[in-house]
Specification:
The protein has about 500 residues and is mainly α. It contains 16 helices and eight strands. The chain has a two-stranded antiparallel ribbon with strand order 1-2. A hairpin with a 4-residue loop joins strand 4 and strand 5. Helix 7 packs antiparallel against helix 8 and helix 10 packs across helix 15. It is flat. The N terminus is likely disordered.
Length: about 500
């Protein structure tokens, strides 16, 4: 009989006993069954003496060996083997929370500030319009603008945040929350309380940094409200760090399990649909700017500021690319957007005044959409239908298999899910996805807008309420149709 792994320390663990029994059963011989076609021999059975039992040398006799039954007493007399177990660090061991939060937050702030200061400083140095101190001051003002903090200028408030910089800021704060979670030893604990504690600590440290930056920037030509800066930095710091802390502690899964299934899948599908619609807007906007490349190049050349100045204008346009993608999304949904007071850019109406001379205006439509352009109206619907398809696929095969294929492997064979998701769950999740997508797109529309002074360009961007309402309706219908069609017409 081959050796097996015995119970550690003589414990009565049933799992250890089961493992040992399986090892014993593997050593037992198979019972010789009657083979088809061989007539049974008509002879009486008799007991075989212990001394006459087969030894295993003869293959024919070895196939007829007796089964040996081993009880718990025999297993208890076997020699035990202690298996080494990897020790885990004691819970709660790690760096102090204030130290970890301060270090990670300062690093996140530097990573997001230095690129802005470098770009502005390079442009100002090559043009001979200022030294390093002036470049650092201008970079700090641009960095504050990326947080949505309005800057008072001689022409009025500058309150149009470059959302590409805002996305970078949120990403670095997300990483800061994740690093602090690991540093204090809260990784994979599933604790919502510790995730909130990390978010508050990072948000508080980030608020102090924002207040200091506002105090340094506030002055003649760049008026900054310290209270406004504190509020914006606190909101972004807590939000970004909370996302990372929830990922680090695994509290996202804990929260998801507490939600009803329809609400959980509805939130996830609504987020997917919202970002798919924004992706469609980004593609259309990029194509429009590319088709108007000659006009964009002419706008850049008209500045006559040299290579550095033209590069600066191009980088500013890139910083507002996310804003433009959201504006095009509102255009595809129907409400459209404004480029100044008394202006409107919609599918059925284009009313423009003198726009700001930036390369992005090369993608503006010249008039209402024609019959050939009505296909653009279908893009948000297609995006919602794709989100509905992923909803049904996720309910069938799980999150990992929703996008890759409709089948999954089981014990080496490709099989199709045996149980279809209930119709009630599919429909309820689809309908809930609409309001979720509407709230997300309304928030993005609000964040993408702003003002460039107090004059004609004091109103730029889409209307958040109209965009959210239309998006909620379109996404709810499209997701329901896509999910129901996938549920009804299943590929075998």
């Amino acid at each position: 009989m081959s050796s097996t792994t015995d119970r550690p320390g003589g414990s009565e663990d049933p799992f250890a006993v089961a493992e040992a029994l399986q090892s014993v059963v593997r050593d037992t011989a198979a019972i010789d069954r009657q083979r088809p076609g061989a007539p049974p021999e008509d002879r009486p059975t008799e007991a075989i003496p212990a001394g006459d039992r087969p030894t295993g040398d003869d293959p024919t006799e070895a196939d007829r060996r007796d089964t040996v039954v081993v009880d718990d007493a025999m297993l208890g007399r076997r020699e035990t083997v202690r298996v080494p177990i990897q020790r885990r660090p004691p819970a709660g061991r790690g760096a102090p929370l204030p130290v970890a939060a301060l270090f990670a937050t300062v690093w996140a702030a530097l990573i997001t500030y230095l690129p802005v200061a470098a770009v502005i400083g390079l442009a100002r140095t090559l043009e001979g319009s200022g030294g390093l101190v002036a470049a650092a001051h201008a970079g700090l003002a641009g960095w504050l603008l990326g947080h949505g903090v309005p800057i008072g200028t001689s022409i009025g408030p500058l309150a149009l945040a470059p959302l590409l910089l805002t996305v970078l800021i949120l990403w670095r704060l997300n990483r800061a929350g994740l690093h602090v979670t690991r540093a204090i030893g809260a990784r994979r604990t599933g604790s919502l309380g510790r995730a909130l504690l990390v978010a508050v600590a990072v948000g508080t440290a980030y608020t102090l940094i924002g207040v200091s930056a506002a105090q340094l920037t506030d002055g003649r030509g760049t008026e900054i409200s310290t209270g406004r800066a504190a509020w914006h930095f606190l909101a972004l710091g807590v939000t970004g760090a909370l996302l990372g802390a929830l990922r680090g502690t695994g509290a996202v899964s804990t929260l998801a399990r507490r939600l009803p299934p329809a609400l959980r899948h509805g939130i996830r599908t609504g987020l997917v649909a919202a970002f798919l619609v924004v992706g469609a807007g980004a593609v259309v906007g990029g194509l429009a700017v590319a088709l108007g490349g000659a006009q964009a190049a002419e706008i850049i050349a008209n500045y006559r500021t040299g290579v550095a100045g033209q590069a600066g204008i191009t980088l500013i346009s890139v910083g507002y690319a996310v804003n433009a993608a959201i504006w095009v999304t509102a255009y595809l949904l129907g409400p459209g957007f404004a480029i100044g007071t008394d202006t409107a850019v919609r599918l059925t109406e284009v009313t423009l005044g003198p726009p700001p001379m930036v390369p992005l205006i090369a993608g503006l439509p010249e008039g209402p959409i024609g019959a050939a352009g009505t296909v653009l109206l279908a893009l948000p619907v297609i995006a919602g239908a794709v989100a509905g398809w992923t909803l049904t696929q996720r309910l069938r095969f799980g999150r990992e298999s929703a996008w890759r294929h409709t089948r999954r492997k089981s014990k080496g064979k490709v099989t199709v899910a045996d149980v279809e998701p209930p119709w009630l769950l599919v429909i309820m999740s689809s309908l809930l996805a609409g309001p979720v997508a509407g709230i997300v797109l309304a928030g993005l529309a609000w964040a993408s807008g702003g003002a460039l002074g107090s004059g004609r360009l004091s109103r730029i961007g889409p209307d958040p309420i109209q965009t959210g309402i239309v998006a909620a309706i379109v996404v709810a219908v499209a997701v329901t149709v896509g999910a129901a069609a996938t549920r009804a017409f299943r590929r075998g």
